[in-house]
Amino acid sequence: MDYFRKILRFAGPYRRYGFLNIFFNILYALFSALSFAALIPMLDVLFNKTKKVYTVPEYSGMGNIKEFLMDSINYRLTTYSGDDEMKGLVLVIGLVLALFLMKNIFNYLAMYFITFLRNGVLKDVRNAMYKKIVELPISFFSEKKKGDVIARISSDVLEIQHSFLSILELIVREPLTILFTIIVMFSISTKLTLFVFIFIPIAGMIISRIGKSLKKQSARVQLEQAEFLSIVEETLSGLRVIKAFNAESRFSKVFQKSTERFFRFSNKLLNRQNLASPIGEFLGILVIGVLLWFGGKMVLIEGSLDASSFIAYMGLAYNILTPAKAISKASYGVKKGNAAAERVLEILETENTVKEKPGAIDKMDFTSGISLANVSFKYEDEFVLKDFSLEVPKGSTVALVGQSGSGKSTIANLVMRFYDVTDGLVKMDDVDIKHLTKKSLRDLIGLVTQDSILFNDSVRNNISLGKNDATEDEIVEAAKIANAHEFIIELPKGYDTNIGDGGNKLSGGQKQRLSIARAVLKNPPVMLLDEATSALDTESERLVQNALENMMQNRTSIVIAHRLSTIQNADKIVVLQKGKIVEIGSHKDLLTADGVYRNLVDMQSLGA
Questions:
Q1: Calpha distance 107→380 (Å, rounded)
Q2: DSSP code of 355?
């Protein structure tokens, strides 16, 4: 129930709907019991057993409430129908119909209001999960499969609604229906009702035994569902490679194995769950059968119970079966929902390791430069950077070069504070970036990555991602600086053209120039270029390089370069090997030094 309580905190904003649901459920439960009790006067009329009452009954306290109600109904029958039995029958039929109508109206109103609470909680849990997903550090998603996260925010949250939140409908209505029904049953026959109670604990024990393994089986189903969603996500992301290597059958086999496991686990879970209804039905009918025997004996042999009351009593006993079955199914729902809630709460309660300090500063300007002082960092066990120091003065262009794995992109991640340093300090204007709000830090930095990450939206909305209030002129000007305006206006709808999933309707060079336009429009004082031209052909590289040079004018730039021809004009080139600086200087100085940088240049020249 811990998970249930944690999920239930999301119901706070919708508590008024919960109170309205409780109110109408109380009325539903009351009228549910009364509607069956009203069968007694109707049956008395049919069996010609109606007691004639000619004076208005007087209420004498709760102890005689049953007699008072029956005498009141009989008084109405006597005064209204006289000796005409059909008039009396019409009156009691009208009473029964009115009570059943009110019962169903209150049932609808209870369900109407709980709908807002259930769907509201569903919406807020999903919103909270999405907010948490975008807040969590990038390191979290290097350990989690994207398909697993998608499964949690979709199917697991839906399972919570179906299992946990369905209990909210039952938590008041069904117990109260049983309570009010039992009170009426006691008023008809205490002896017969006590006899019924002998069987309730037995039924409860049998049902509880069935539900014990449901949580474990449900968790296996949800984990397997996350697994095949991950396979689908990976397949869609890498479809070109799969087709190029004729690996369709291999991936199909992996997917089929996953769905086969899902098939087996689901069958076990649902078959166990489906036992609830038939077992509950059979136990209920067993109780009814025993009641017929014991109650029939009271009517036919002992004469301690009249036939009308016994028939109504049987209706009331059957009226307990539906809520009792609903409660037993709800107990399965809790066990099944526990597994889903555990997976959802694992995301919601994951601690964000890249935290903002209390009283973090909103930095609005950039005045002197960026520095990394004795920085050490490791993703897992081995250090990627060790005692690394670097100064990037304002207005300068600093290039980072080196072989793959030398730590170039790691420096970019640390400056953007996607990760926190293991040791040492990263400073902006001599202020530790941990003392700045993440928003203000990232507002001051523009990022262009090797992979042009664009979204399934219009060109305009992709460019204005970092500046929602950008004017048309500003968007066009940014596109011109990025050498993108000419190809944009040739698109079918110009700036309003949808570029497809990941920008797949554009070429690599076009996508990269849109990424640059996005960074230009943001207009930050610091630019961080992470191998922005390495994936392009020569012509696209020239256009993009021109765009980058336009963008870097009058800005502080950190350029991570794979193609060394693109950074020859940098103020300072830093050569990295295994997380350490091995050379530093201008392009000309480093060539003259005839060291690691010269070797890298020569290798690229030979490769060209």
A1: 57
A2: P
Q: Which domains does the chain have, with CATH numbers?
A: 2-348 (1.20.1560.10)
The backbone region for 365, taken as left when phi is positive above 0, alpha when psi lies in -120 to 50, beta otherwise, is beta
Kindly calculate the radius of gyration of the chain based on its CA atoms and give it in whole angstroms.
Answer: 37
| Closest alpha carbon to 218 in 162, 269, 277, 160 | 269
Question: What six digits make up the tokens of 170?
Answer: 């039952």
Query: Looking up tokens 């800005």, which residue turns up?
Result: 555
Cα-flanking dihedrals φ and ψ of residue 541, to 5°?
-60, -40
Per-residue pLDDT reduced to its tens digit, 537-569: 566 667 667 777 777 777 888 888 777 766 888
Host H or E run for residue 607: helix 596-607
Q: State how far the alpha carbon of 369 is from the alpha carbons of 366, 444, 558, in Å.
A: 7, 12, 11
Question: CA angle 446-451-457, nearest 5°?
Answer: 80
Q: Considering only CA atoms, which of 134, 144, 182 is closest in space to residue 36?
A: 182
CB 320 within 8 A of CB 122: no
Cβ distance 559 to 529 under 8 Å? Answer: yes
* Separation between Cα atoms, residue 71 and residue 76, nearest integer Å: 9
DSSP 529-571: EESTTTTS-HHHHHHHHHHHHHHHTTSEEEEE-SSGGGGTT-S
The residue with tokens 């004498």 is: 60
| Three-class DSSP labels, 35-95 | HHHCHHHHHHHHCCCCCCCCCCCCCCCHHHHHHHHHHHHHHHHHHHHCCCHHHHHHHHHHH
Q: Return d(Cα 397, Cα 407) in angstroms, integer.
A: 18
Return d(Cα 563, Cα 479) in angstroms, integer: 24
In angstroms, the CA 399 to CA 129 distance is 38
Q: What spatial distance separates the first Cα and last Cα of the chain, rounded to whole Å?
A: 66
Q: Which H or E run includes 572?
A: strand 572-577
Dist. CA 598–CA 591, nearest whole Å: 5
From 102-106, 288-292, 524-528, the region with the lowest mean pLDDT? 288-292
* DSSP 8-state assignment for residue 428: E
Q: What is the pLDDT of residues 105-128, one digit of tens each?
A: 998 998 898 888 888 888 898 899
Q: Do the bridges between strand 423-428 and strand 526-530 make them parallel or antiparallel, or are there none, so unpaired?
A: unpaired
- The reported pTM is 0.70
Q: Are 13 and 120 in contact (CB under 8 A)?
A: yes
3-state SS, 275-312, equals CHHHHHHHHHHHHHHHHHHHHHHHHHHHCCCCHHHHHH
Instruction: Determine the Cα–Cα distance for residues 532 and 530; give it in Å rounded to an integer.
Output: 5
Q: Which residues contact 301 (CB under 8 A, 6 or more apart)?
A: none
